[in-house]
Amino acid sequence: MKQNTNAVKRLVSLDVLRGLTVMFMIFVNNGAGEEIFSTLQHSKWNGMTPCDLVFPFFLFIMGISTYLSLRKGGFRWTPQQARKTIKRTLLLFLIGLLINWFDMAMDGRPLDFAHLRIMGVMQRIAICYGATVAAVLTIHHLTHSFRGLWVLVALLLTGYSVLLLAGGGYDYNSLTNILSRVDHALLGDAHLYHKSPVDPEGLLSSLSAMTNTMIGFLVASWALRKERPELGHPHLVTLSRLLVCGAIMAFAGWLLQFGLPLNKRVWSPSYVLLTCGIAASLQGLLVGWLDIYRAQSQTTNSGSAGQPWLVKLTLWFGMNPLFLYVASEVVGILFGAIGIKDGAYSLLHAVILNGYWASVAYAALFVALHALMGWALWKKRVFIKL
């Protein structure tokens, strides 16, 4: 794959944010032992921990990437684009199913398809990607703008809010919670996640989750569009617009939580707006640091400044994000099934007496293993697109 040297078209900051997100995703998913810091676990129900930021961040970033990808084709529905969208959506969903099957197989039940979980992280990514592309291209074809997508996002979040309030969406009870009842009716109890009252990647909550990707697309469509030269440096325009969008959405999410509490399990509308706001703000800050300040420094110093080691590390993850995430899931399941996880944690715990920090050390080593994979792929300029 040839590197794009056009700074306006390719944002280093986007690859870095994506890499940071995947790194943290892998880190929080792979704690060991029974003592794990609460900040490194998903919130049990209402509320939000730093761990709860990673998945919505990824969906938001996917929305930005979708904008950049579809812009190359002029946002037109073509047979080629339709085939590409359908193929990628099905591929991502199938990979998610295979991960669930591998987990079941390593548990000694390779043919127990009656209990195969249908939904999951990759399945939700597939749904959000496919729905966003279909909505964007259809609306643009009909209206030649993206204003209709704002309307769709508003309708989805409003309708979902009513559904949560009227259907007991915040009930910590699978028998009365409408999200659980729909999943049980359509997917069946045997095919669901059973460690919380609702499947965290359930069907109805996917309607809300897909707005993270749509909002990412809409923010990119405004922040990254080409403007008149008199408005100034394009990255400065991008920076200011990302920060404005981020501040507005974060405040709206914070305000909305008083009526619709933050809740990752049900993917509440307040959770959507707050996480999108934080993601947009962080993206803006990274644009300021990497795409403006450091780019100018490297130009002034004829490139001698180079990239900080942390930036290089995140780029290893950011250039092959889904592949490394899928690899982490497979390796994590394998390590757990054959005893490597418990053995490694026991050795670490013998040296690090505090169980919480021993768990952190194991997760950090697990991330380091995948950093080596990412480095090897990056060194060979191999970018695996799932």
From TrEMBL:
<dbReference type="Pfam" id="PF07786">
    <property type="entry name" value="HGSNAT_cat"/>
</dbReference>
<feature type="transmembrane region" description="Helical">
    <location>
        <begin position="313"/>
        <end position="340"/>
    </location>
</feature>
<feature type="domain" description="Heparan-alpha-glucosaminide N-acetyltransferase catalytic">
    <location>
        <begin position="10"/>
        <end position="129"/>
    </location>
</feature>
<feature type="transmembrane region" description="Helical">
    <location>
        <begin position="360"/>
        <end position="378"/>
    </location>
</feature>
<feature type="transmembrane region" description="Helical">
    <location>
        <begin position="12"/>
        <end position="33"/>
    </location>
</feature>
<keyword id="KW-1133">Transmembrane helix</keyword>
<feature type="transmembrane region" description="Helical">
    <location>
        <begin position="271"/>
        <end position="292"/>
    </location>
</feature>
<feature type="transmembrane region" description="Helical">
    <location>
        <begin position="203"/>
        <end position="224"/>
    </location>
</feature>
<keyword id="KW-0472">Membrane</keyword>
<protein>
    <submittedName>
        <fullName>DUF1624 domain-containing protein</fullName>
    </submittedName>
</protein>
<feature type="transmembrane region" description="Helical">
    <location>
        <begin position="118"/>
        <end position="137"/>
    </location>
</feature>
<feature type="transmembrane region" description="Helical">
    <location>
        <begin position="53"/>
        <end position="70"/>
    </location>
</feature>
<feature type="transmembrane region" description="Helical">
    <location>
        <begin position="149"/>
        <end position="170"/>
    </location>
</feature>
<feature type="transmembrane region" description="Helical">
    <location>
        <begin position="236"/>
        <end position="259"/>
    </location>
</feature>
<dbReference type="InterPro" id="IPR012429">
    <property type="entry name" value="HGSNAT_cat"/>
</dbReference>
<feature type="transmembrane region" description="Helical">
    <location>
        <begin position="90"/>
        <end position="106"/>
    </location>
</feature>
<keyword id="KW-0812">Transmembrane</keyword>
